[in-house]
Write a structure and sequence with these properties.
With 277 residues, the protein is an alpha/beta fold. The chain has ten helices and eleven strands. The protein folds into two domains: 123 residues, 3-Layer(aba) Sandwich (Rossmann fold); 135 residues, Nucleotidyltransferase, domain 5, CATH 3.30.420.180. It is elongated.
């Protein structure tokens, strides 16, 4: 059984003043009924020792909300940063809750979108300092599966995967998925079609030759899959192709291939009004 707490580490809120403590409690109250059921919050008020507590949370991949000055955060985390693809998202708020700053992993880690979501719930302003052209993202779901894979297997894999993805991109819900895609060999796959019907989302299928056009973006190229269907991966490639088809722009993987015993899935993202910068 997959440990949901390992997939979904708690969001940690760090406060240093009485006003910050009150704001932290407000954030938890506002989101306790809105977030995914397995999302938890940890509140550390005036943690001691401060640096050790913060660094331990950061190194264990907890997304962090600091209610304090950005200088304190920078000095504490500076020597522990890896890169924008692996560091957890970090937000900084003033103790009045008027501004939300995505300090780390703005694009790839989802901090920019998280900041907008949190700011909206607080009636605050998200201060986005990274260069970007913000437009509404389009998410698409790529699915591969064995012949005869039950719809229940696909549902469990997708739910688990979207729950994981939502920790980086809080705006992602099943309703955010605009297209489900696969290889044309699965056009008549009963379980996959049943899943699409339940989700009220159309299934788009593409030939292997089309899926191969994005093979340089795949996280892993499978020779076994290539021998079976003529391309190096189905779920990731189908997600990328369908996202680009919706927007007419480039797409990126935001969730690499996830696997169960009989199915795989992946999520891609693109932007309707232009590529993300």
């Amino acid at each position: 059984m997959i440990d949901s707490l390992a997939i979904n580490p708690a969001i940690a809120i760090i406060s240093l003043t009485d006003e910050g403590k009150a704001l932290a409690e407000r954030i938890i109250a506002l989101h306790s009924s809105e977030e995914a059921s397995d999302q938890r919050y940890l509140h550390h008020h005036k943690p001691k020792p401060f640096s050790d507590t913060v660094i331990n949370l950061f190194n264990n991949n907890h997304r962090l909300i600091f209610i304090c000055s950005t200088g304190i955060v920078i000095r504490t985390l500076a020597t522990h940063l890896t890169d924008k693809y692996r560091d957890p998202a970090v937000l900084v708020l003033d103790q009045q809750g008027k501004h939300v700053i995505p300090l780390l992993s703005g694009h790839e880690g989802g901090a920019n979108e998280w900041a907008r979501s949190l700011a909206s719930s607080l009636g605050a302003t998200a201060v986005i300092t990274s260069a970007e052209k913000y437009t509404q993202p389009v998410y698409t779901l790529g699915i591969g599966c064995d012949r005869g894979c039950p719809v229940e297997d696909i549902e469990l894999l997708v739910e688990r995967s979207l729950s994981q993805l939502k920790q980086k991109y809080p705006d992602v819900e099943k309703a955010s998925i605009q297209c489900i895609a696969s290889i044309d060999l699965k056009a008549d796959e009963v379980g996959l079609l049943a899943f699409c019907k339940k989700a009220s989302i159309n299934l788009e299928v593409f030939p292997a030759t089309t899926l191969r056009t994005v093979e340089d973006q795949l996280s892993y190229k499978s020779d076994i899959v290539f021998k079976e269907v003529g391309c190096y991966g189905v779920a990731e490639a189908a997600a990328l192709i369908s996202a680009s088809a919706v927007t007419g722009n480039n797409a990126e993987l935001v969730l690499h291939k996830q696997k169960s015993k009989r199915a795989t899935c992946s999520v891609a993202r693109s932007y309707k009004s232009g590529d993300k910068h």
